[in-house]
Amino acid sequence: MDNERTEAQGVKTRTILSGVALATVLSAGCGEDLLGPGELIDELPRELTVLETQLIERSNAFGLELLAEVVADDDRANVVLSPLSASMALGMTLNGAEGTTFEAMRSTLGFADMTQAEINEAYSSLITLLTELDPVVRFDIANAIWANDDVQIDDDFLEAVRDAFDAQTESRDFSAPGTLEDINQWVSDQTDGEIDSILDALDPALVMLLVNAIYFDGSWTHQFDPADTRDASFTTEDGSTVTVEMMSIANTEFPLGGGIDYAAAELPYGGEAFSMLVAVPNDDPRDFAASLDEAKWNEIVGSLSPIEVDALSIPKFELSYDAYLNDALRAMGMDIAFQPGADFSGLSPIGNQLCIDFVRQKTFIEVDERGTRAAAVTGVGIGPTSFLGLIVDRPFVFAIRERLSGTIVFTGFVSDPTAEDPGPEPFEKTCG
Fold it and tell me: Both 305 and 358 in a single domain?
């Protein structure tokens, strides 16, 4: 693998965030419009390609299924995910998979009838399309791969992820403390310090770490007036109430919708190309989230239509979330990639001895009167399924023996194989 670090370039794009509570209030002030006339974005600069359309549809379906699996299994009060970050990190990993491992990962990600080349092309062109879509909204993507310098990595794999994902690639000593420090510093740099690390420790036996980082900063098209923010009651999942800072806006047009089991609204950012869609279930909110699928999502989106609201309120909040996605991804059909028998021979000559050790995602989101800041980092760790050898890269003891009699001929302790012997220390004579 190249020891030379390539420059990681920030790429701007966008994903929808959902899952916060929405309420109406009887009195609220008017918000401040961010943009003036003529600055709204009502169409893409070009038509989506067939591959891009397939990628978007199937990535959305993957994201909804991932949310459903995590919410059903994680009883924490809040869950914040970035399906796009997970999809991109696993999409990079997919380039190293072969055989049934490739099929399982591709199917789980929703790309069952797309070739690897088509998937890579769709990611690359869609990112390019969305890079400068809205100058008011910041959306950065960065990808990086760190490989253990003890392992040979396939050059074609590295070229593919550099070309399609603009990934920085680097070969490092995973047993050196500085490697973990550099990885976590990269994560912090790419998320403006909102997420300061992806790993607490770096296993020296790990073969590779693939990381995607996303940073989003969007101002509401119709900003909330801080003077209209009031303390209000918020009913939690178990029926108890807590006090939140409720932002409110009145007499402003928003897309509203709903069905028999939910109410919904969409809050646009910047030039309205990007937005936050919020759905409030009428019954058990966790069951609603756990049952959310592509058909339900399309129903919610289809129910929206612009209307001037009397009032719209949403709580200010700041959340962070940290989870391993192994169980959710295995339940979604990617099980083979996480166990012995996985085939990552497209990644390394020892690929039939590798599997995904973990998929960890950390997220952050802050919603206030101005808008939303959000960040996500997904790390995919590739490790050995078994290890039938010994890498002597730390101080060691040795002995030379005659095996049949058991006689030890030499013994030693080595802490620096490169050090030269300076000779013995002077000694004090005591023998006359």
Answer: no
Do 332 and 206 have their domain in common? yes
Residues 311 and 328 in one domain: no
Q: Are residues 160 and 309 in the same domain?
A: no
C-alpha–C-alpha distance, residues 40 and 137, integer Å: 12
Q: Is residue 419 part of a domain?
A: no
Q: Containing domain of residue 254, as a range? A: 222-315
Query: Would 62 be classed as within a structural domain?
Result: yes
Over residues 85-114, the pLDDT tens digits come to 899 999 999 999 999 999 999 999 999 889
What CATH number is given to the structural domain containing 370? Answer: 3.30.497.10
Q: Is the pTM of this model over 0.70?
A: yes
Share of residues in the chain with pLDDT > 90 (%):
48
Question: For the residues 143-149, what does the mean pLDDT come to?
Answer: 94
Name the band, by pLDDT with cuts 50, 70 and 90, for residue 272: confident
With beta carbons less than 8 A apart as the criterion, state whether 224 and 247 touch. Answer: yes
Closest CA to 377 of 181, 142, 177: 142
CB proximity list for 98: less than 8 A, separation 6 or greater: 343, 344, 345, 346, 351
Total domains in the chain come to 2
Residues 323 and 311 in one domain: no
